[in-house]
Inverse folding.
């Protein structure tokens, strides 16, 4: 089992996308890359922590490769959008890959370079690639948030 950590806007949607990937064993959402210990959602939302909202993925590399996870990451957000995704604005929504090893760093740099050279985007790719740092788990209400909301809607229908 290995870990990968991605910031690509609101962590709810990022997590929902990675949960669908075969070989992903578990996901959680939280905060990484800031200077504030044990931040809560409101701290991060207030833009006082420097953290990004992230999804941490535990995966089986025998089933899904890190390169395949990066392909999902690039697909689910706009890597040319600086500190925002859609209507969500602020550094907490930045595009960032937090690497847990030198191999991940090299692979992420290579994948970003390949994406840029393909000319898919008219603007530069602004995704940051950084070493993983302290990971602060978001509260339970934020874990698998979109799945919980769908379940609540289904329960109301029945």
């Amino acid at each position: 089992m290995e870990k990968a950590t991605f910031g690509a806007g609101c962590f709810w949607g990022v997590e929902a996308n990675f949960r669908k990937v075969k070989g992903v064993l578990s996901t959680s959402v939280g905060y990484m890359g800031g200077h504030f210990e044990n931040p809560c959602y409101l701290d991060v939302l207030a833009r006082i922590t420097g953290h990004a909202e992230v999804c941490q993925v535990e995966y089986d590399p025998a089933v899904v490769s890190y390169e395949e996870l990066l392909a999902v990451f690039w697909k689910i957000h706009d890597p040319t959008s600086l500190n925002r995704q859609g209507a969500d604005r602020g550094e907490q929504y930045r595009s960032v890959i937090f690497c847990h090893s030198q191999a991940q760093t090299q692979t992420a740099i290579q994948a970003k370079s390949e994406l840029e050279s393909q000319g898919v985007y008219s603007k530069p790719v602004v995704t940051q690639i950084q070493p993983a740092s302290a990971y602060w788990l978001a509260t339970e209400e934020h874990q698998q948030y979109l799945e919980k909301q769908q379940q609540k809607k289904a329960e109301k229908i029945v």
